C-alpha cells in the first residue's frame, strides 16, 4: 500500500528495530545472570515403553522462571544461549544436575538429554559429557543424547566421530524431530542411530489426515527395518496412542502420559502411576 511507505513508516520501522535490539540485549543480560545463579533447571518428561506401559526414561527439558515469575520458553533462551556461546556452561550445569537426579531413578530408566547442533563444534563435548557421568556416578548406558538433523549437516564426518565416541562408551544416540529437517533420510544412511523420535507435528494431526498417517506409518516401518527404536512425541489423546500402538511404535511421549516436571515430583508421579496401573 502506497500510504504505508514514506518517511513516517521508516521511522516506525527504525523504532521497532531499536526495540527489538534492546529487548534482545536485555534478555541476553538476564540469561547470563540466570545461568550464573543456576536459575535454569532441568524438568523431566516421562517416556513410556508402549509395549509394557512402563516408564522407560525421562527427557530433561530446560525450564527458566525469571524474577518476576514469568517463564521463558526454551525456544527463546536456547537460541540466545547458542548464539552467545553460553550454551556450553548451561549444558554442563544442566547435564550434571540431570545425571545427579537420574541416580535416584530405577536402573532401567534412562535420561534423555538434548544437545544443540552448535555443540557439535565443541572439541571438548565428549569430555564434558563423560565428566558429568563420572562426577555423578551415572553409568553411560543410562544416558541418551538427542540431536537433530542439523547437528550432522555442518561437518558430517566429525559429527559422526563424536557420536561414535559416545556410542562406544555406551551412550545411546537418538535422532530428534525426525522428519522436519532437510535431509532426514540421508542422516539415517550416514549414521547408525539407536532411536528416532518422530516429531510431534506428525503425531498431532495424522489421524485426521490420511496422507500424514501414511507418512507416520512409513517412518515406523523404516525404524523397524533398520532395527532402530521409534519414539513418537506429542501424544495428547488416547486415540493417537492406540493408533501408534497398532502401527508398532516402541516409545511414547506427550501430555497424555505426563508433562515435564521437577525432579522431586518424579517419585510421586511413578507411585501414582503404578497404583493406577495396578487398579486397572
Ligand atoms: P524437543 O527436544 O523436541 O522436546 C520436546 C518438546 O515437546 C518439549 O518442548 C516438550 O515440552 C514438548 N512436548 C512434549 N509433549 C508434548 C505434547 O503432548 N504436546 C505438545 N504440544 N508439546 C509437547 P519444550 O520443553 O518447550 O522444548 C522445546 C525445545 O527446546 C526442545 O524440543 C529442544 O529442542 C529444546 N530444548 C529444551 N531443553 C533443552 C536443553 O536443555 N538443551 C538444548 N540444547 N535444547 C533444549
Ligand atoms: Mg528432544
Ligand atoms: Mg523432539
Ligand atoms: Mg522439537
In short:
The chain has 280 residues and is an alpha/beta fold. Helices cover 50% and strands 19% of the residues.
Uncertain parts: none
* Main sheet record: 8 strands, mixed, barrel
How would you describe the shape? globular
Structural class: alpha/beta
Indicate the proportion of strand residues: 15-25%
| Order of helix and strand elements from N to C terminus | HEEEHHEHEHHEHEHHEHEH
| Individual helix count | 11
The overall pLDDT average reads: 92
Task: Characterize the structure shown.
By secondary structure, the chain is α/β, with parallel strands linked by helices. The protein has eleven helices and nine strands. An eight-stranded mixed β-barrel has the order 1-2-4-5-6-7-8-9. Helix 3 (87-102) packs parallel to helix 4. The longest helix is centred in the N-terminal third of the chain and has 30 residues, at 7-36. The protein is globular and about 65 Å long. The mean pLDDT is 92. Bound molecules: ligand C2E and magnesium ion (3 copies). Residues 45, 61-62, 73-75, 78, 94, 114-116, 146, 176-177, 200, 233-236, 253-255, 260 line the site of ligand C2E. Residues 59, 114, 146, 176 line the site of one magnesium ion.
List keywords for this structure.
8-stranded mixed barrel; binds ligand C2E; binds magnesium ion; alpha/beta
Give me the secondary-structure topology:
Layout: H1 7-36, E1 40-49, E2 54-65, E3 71-72, H2 74-84, H3 87-102, E4 110-114, H4 125-136, E5 143-148, H5 150-153, H6 156-168, E6 172-178, H7 184-190, E7 195-198, H8 200-205, H9 210-226, E8 229-232, H10 238-246, E9 251-252, H11 266-279
Parallel strand pairs: 2-4, 4-5, 5-6, 6-7, 7-8, 8-9
Antiparallel strand pairs: 1-2, 1-9, 2-3
Helix pairs in contact: 3-4
Amino acid at each position: 500500500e502506497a500510504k504505508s511507505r514514506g518517511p513516517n513508516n521508516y521511522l516506525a520501522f527504525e523504532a521497532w528495530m531499536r526495540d527489538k535490539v534492546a529487548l534482545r540485549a536485555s534478555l541476553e543480560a538476564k540469561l547470563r545472570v540466570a545461568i550464573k545463579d543456576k536459575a535454569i533447571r532441568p524438568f523431566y518428561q516421562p517416556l513410556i515403553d508402549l509395549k509394557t506401559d512402563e516408564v522407560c526414561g525421562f527427557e530433561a527439558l530446560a525450564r527458566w522462571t525469571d524474577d518476576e515469575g514469568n517463564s521463558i520458553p526454551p525456544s527463546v533462551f536456547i537460541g540466545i544461549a547458542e548464539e552467545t556461546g553460553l550454551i556450553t556452561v548451561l549444558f554442563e550445569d544442566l547435564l550434571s544436575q540431570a545425571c545427579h537426579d537420574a541416580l535416584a531413578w530405577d536402573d532401567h530408566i534412562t535420561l534423555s538429554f538434548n544437545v544443540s547442533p552448535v555443540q557439535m563444534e565443541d572439541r571438548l563435548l565428549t569430555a564434558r559429557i563423560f565428566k558429568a557421568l563420572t562426577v555423578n556416578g551415572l553409568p553411560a548406558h543410562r544416558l541418551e543424547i538427542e540431536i537433530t538433523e542439523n547437528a550432522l549437516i555442518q561437518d558430517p564426518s566429525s559429527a559422526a566421530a563424536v557420536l561414535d565416541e559416545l556410542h562406544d562408551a555406551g551412550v545411546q544416540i537418538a535422532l530428534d524431530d525426525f522428519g522436519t529437517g532437510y535431509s532426514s533420510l540421508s542422516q539415517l544412511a550416514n549414521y547408525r542411530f539407536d532411536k528416532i523420535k518422530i516429531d510431534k507435528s506428525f503425531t498431532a494431526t495424522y489421524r485426521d489426515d490420511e496422507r500424514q498417517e501414511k507418512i507416520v506409518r512409513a517412518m515406523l516401518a523404516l525404524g523397524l527395518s533398520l532395527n532402530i527404536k521409534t519414539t513418537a512425541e506429542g501424544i495428547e489423546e488416547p486415540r493417537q496412542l492406540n493408533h501408534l500402538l497398532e502401527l508398532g511404535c516402541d516409545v511414547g511421549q506427550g501430555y497424555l502420559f505426563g508433562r515435564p516436571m521437577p525432579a522431586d515430583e518424579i517419585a510421586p508421579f511413578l507411585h501414582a502411576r503404578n497404583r493406577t496401573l495396578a487398579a486397572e
